[in-house]
Design a protein that fits this description.
elongated, two-stranded antiparallel ribbon, alpha+beta, four-stranded antiparallel β-sheet
C-alpha cells in the first residue's frame, strides 16, 4: 500500500454498472503518474489471469437487463472513436457532472473494461488505469511505536462515494446496455473471446460485496527499501485490489458503496425494479 491513491473504481465501475469502481479510484501507487502521453494506439490490456469464472457462461444475459423506455437506439461509434460519447453518457448518468478531472478520457471503454476485470486480482497494470489520481497523501497515525491507517483518511474519498451514490442506477444501466457491444469487444480484446462481459461484471460486483469489514483500526508497516506502507495483517495485504479499496474507504463508506452495488447488481442480473 503506497502513500498515493488513485481513482478508478467507483465511477469506472458505475459506468459498467458498478466499482468499483469499484476500486481503481483508490488503488495505491508509489507516486502520482504524469499526464498520459499522446499515442495513436490503445493501451496494452491487463493479462487475463485467475481467479477463474465462478458461474456458467451467459449466466446473466444482457438481453434480460432492464432499460428505461425510449432508450437511445442510435448507432454506436467504432470502439476506437467512442471516447467522447462514452464520457458523455457516463456524465449524464451522474447528473451532468464533469468527469474529465476524474477519468482518463482516452481509450475510455477499454480502460474501464480492463479496470473492472482486474479488481479481483492482487496486482494491476499501470497503463490500464481508467482514472486520474486522487489528491493528497495517505494519512497515518503512530501510537506506542506502531503505525495505523488514520480513520480520517477515508474523508478523502467522500466526494467520490457521494457521487457514486447519486448516480441514477437505471439510467446508468440503460447506457451500459447501449454501449454493451463496445464493452464486449474490449473484453474480447483482453483475450477472453467466448465469455460475456456482463457475467464478469456481476462476478466482480459479488467479489466487492464479499470484501471484509474489519471492526478495528488497520495497522500498517513500512515496506523495506521502498516508500510504501503495507497492511501488517498478511491476510489483508494479500487481498485483491478491490478488497483493499473497500478497506481504505472505511466501514461506513464501504457499507454505502456496497448498498449501491447491490442495487446495480440486481439490474445487471435481470431483475426488473418496481415501477
Amino acid at each position: 500500500m503506497s502513500q498515493r491513491f488513485h481513482y478508478g473504481p467507483w465511477l469506472a465501475a458505475a459506468f459498467l454498472a458498478a466499482s468499483g469502481v469499484v476500486a481503481w479510484k483508490y488503488y495505491p501507487r508509489d507516486a502520482a503518474p504524469g499526464p498520459a502521453p499522446a499515442t495513436s494506439t490503445a493501451p496494452a490490456p491487463a493479462p487475463v489471469l485467475d481467479p477463474a469464472p465462478t458461474a456458467p457462461a451467459n449466466a446473466y444475459p444482457i438481453d434480460a437487463v432492464p432499460v428505461l423506455p425510449g432508450a437511445d437506439a442510435a448507432p454506436l461509434p467504432p470502439l476506437d472513436q467512442s471516447d467522447a460519447e462514452a464520457l458523455a453518457a457516463l456524465s449524464a448518468a451522474a447528473g451532468g457532472a464533469d468527469l474529465g478531472g476524474l477519468l482518463r478520457a482516452e481509450f475510455l471503454v477499454p480502460r474501464l473494461v480492463a479496470t473492472i476485470d482486474a479488481l479481483p486480482r492482487k496486482t494491476v497494470t499501470q497503463n490500464v488505469y481508467a482514472a486520474r489520481p486522487v489528491a493528497g497523501t495517505l494519512v497515518v497515525e503512530t501510537r506506542d511505536g506502531r503505525t495505523w491507517l488514520d480513520p480520517g483518511n477515508s474523508a478523502r474519498y467522500a466526494p467520490a462515494v457521494a457521487m457514486f451514490e447519486a448516480v441514477d442506477s437505471r439510467r446508468l444501466v440503460t447506457a451500459y446496455v447501449r454501449f454493451y457491444p463496445l464493452l464486449q469487444q474490449a473484453y474480447r480484446d483482453l483475450g477472453v473471446p467466448d465469455r460475456p462481459f456482463n457475467d464478469r461484471l456481476v462476478e466482480v460486483i459479488d467479489h466487492l460485496l464479499a470484501a471484509p469489514a474489519p471492526a478495528g483500526p488497520l495497522e500498517l508497516v513500512r515496506v523495506p527499501d521502498k516508500p510504501r506502507w503495507a497492511f501488517a495483517d498478511p491476510a489483508l495485504e494479500g487481498a485483491s485490489v478491490g478488497h483493499k479499496a473497500m478497506l481504505r474507504l472505511g466501514p461506513e463508506q464501504s457499507g454505502r458503496v456496497k448498498a449501491k452495488l447491490r442495487e446495480l447488481r440486481a439490474l445487471l442480473a435481470g431483475q426488473r425494479p418496481a415501477a
